[in-house]
C-alpha cells in the first residue's frame, strides 16, 4: 500500500490535532502539528526579545531555531522541542495564542516552516494538520480535509483544554482570540488559511472526535 499524505486544515480549535493524532496512530503514520511549530517560533522571539518587525533579527533567529518533536515515553504525547528543550506546555499558553498569528503571517517565517514541513513529509505516510497544508505545503496530498465548527463550541473545547492544564480563561476572551486568529490567518498574503478546491469540508460542531476520526479514515481508505 502506498503511503499517503493526509492534510487536515481548518479554523482554530476545531479538533484538527486530536483527529490528526488519532488518524496517524490508526494508520501507523507520522504526525506533524504545524501550528506547534509557529507557536515555537513565537515563543523563541518573545524570549529573545525580538520585535516582530525586526526582519534582520528574525532572519538570524530562523537560523538559530531548531524545532523538532519528541514522543513522550508514557503518555505518547507529541511534544514540541525548541533547541533541544521540551516546551509543549509553554507554547499552549494564551500569551502565545494571542501573538502567534502575527508571527505566522511573516513571509520569512512561513518560508522556513513550510520548507521544514515538506522535508518532514517527504517520505509520505504522514498526517499533518495546520492552515495551509492542502494548499501550500502538500498541494498533492491524497487526502485533504478542511475543518470548521461554530465558534462558541470551539471556544468551550479550548477552555476545557486550558483548564485541564490549570489555565483558567474567560470564554469571551477565548472567543475573541479564535476570531482574531481566524481573521489574521485568513487574510494574510502568504499562504492564507483557505479551503483547497479539492478538500472535503467537515463541520465538527455536532459530531464527536471518534466520528471525525472515522470520517478521515474513510477518506484515507478510499484513497489507498
Ligand atoms: O493549530 P494552532 O491553533 O496551534 O496554530 C497556531 C497558529 O499557527 C494559527 O493560528 C496560525 O496563525 C498558525 N499556523 C499557520 N499555518 C499552519 C499552522 C498554524 O499559520 N499550517
UniProtKB/TrEMBL annotation:
Subcellular location: Cytoplasm
Binding, ATP: 10-18
Organism name: Hymenobacter aranciens
Reaction equation(s) it catalyzes: CMP + ATP = CDP + ADP; dCMP + ATP = dCDP + ADP
Entry similarity comment: Belongs to the cytidylate kinase family. Type 1 subfamily.
Name of this protein: Cytidylate kinase
GO molecular function, a single term: kinase activity
All residue ranges annotated as the Cytidylate kinase domain in the record: 6-220
Domain of life: Bacteria
Enzyme class, UniProt record, top EC level: transferase
Matches recorded under Pfam families: Cytidylate_kin
Keywords assigned: ATP-binding, Cytoplasm, Kinase, Nucleotide-binding, Transferase
Transferase in keyword set: yes
Record carries keyword Transferase: yes
